[in-house]
From TrEMBL:
Species assigned in the record: Roseomonas genomospecies 6
Gene: rnpA
BP-aspect Gene Ontology terms: tRNA 5'-leader removal
Catalysis: reaction(s): Endonucleolytic cleavage of RNA, removing 5'-extranucleotides from tRNA precursor
Domain of life, source organism: Bacteria
Protein name per the record: Ribonuclease P protein component
Family matches, as InterPro entries: Ribosomal_Su5_D2-typ_SF (IPR020568), Ribsml_uS5_D2-typ_fold_subgr (IPR014721), RNase_P (IPR000100), RNase_P_CS (IPR020539)
Length: 159
């Protein structure tokens, strides 16, 4: 069994799951349901903990114990591949298994999670951001016109 990813924390307690569900911010796809909640002052990871936390759930509607465990394992791996690289930090995510999760083709399950992040506005393209930072010398590098590379102004309009 692989070690948990240090960039993603876990939701463990029922109130944490209920807080995420209570925001009613979700995306439903054939292979999964993604629920999202932005961190606030009441439920925030402790200092030094990962900025993204994940919870997984599969009800008995999904199937027997073997099917539910397979669905959770598939969701955990999908989250490891997609959330660690592309999810916006500062959020709690809950992945809910559906009846089709255990049998859904892998590429389609990954597509469901990708589409959910994009639909909720939480997708960040890590490779493009890294390439942009390298090309500009970092997010706060000084450009030839005296402004910063992060687009936060500093230059003259219409120059």
């Amino acid at each position: 069994m692989a070690a948990p990813d240090p960039r993603v924390g876990r939701l463990k307690r029922r109130p944490e799951f209920l807080a995420v569900a209570g925001t009613r911010r979700k995306h439903v796809a054939p292979g999964l349901i993604l629920q999202v909640r932005r961190h606030d002052e009441r439920q925030r990871p402790a200092p030094g903990e990962p900025p993204i936390r994940l919870g997984l759930t599969a009800s008995r509607k999904v199937g027997n114990a073997v099917v539910r465990n397979r669905a959770r394992r598939r969701l955990r791996e999908a989250a490891r591949q997609i959330l660690t690289a592309h999810a916006a930090p500062g959020h709690d995510f809950v992945l809910v298994a559906r009846a089709a999760t255990a049998e859904r083709p892998w590429t389609e399950l990954l597509g469901d999670l990708t589409a959910a992040l994009k639909r909720l506005g939480l997708w960040r393209d890590a490779s493009r951001n890294e390439a942009k930072n390298e090309a500009t010398g970092g997010p706060n590098a000084v450009t030839p016109n005296g402004g910063t590379g992060n687009g936060s102004g500093g230059g003259e309009a219409g120059a």
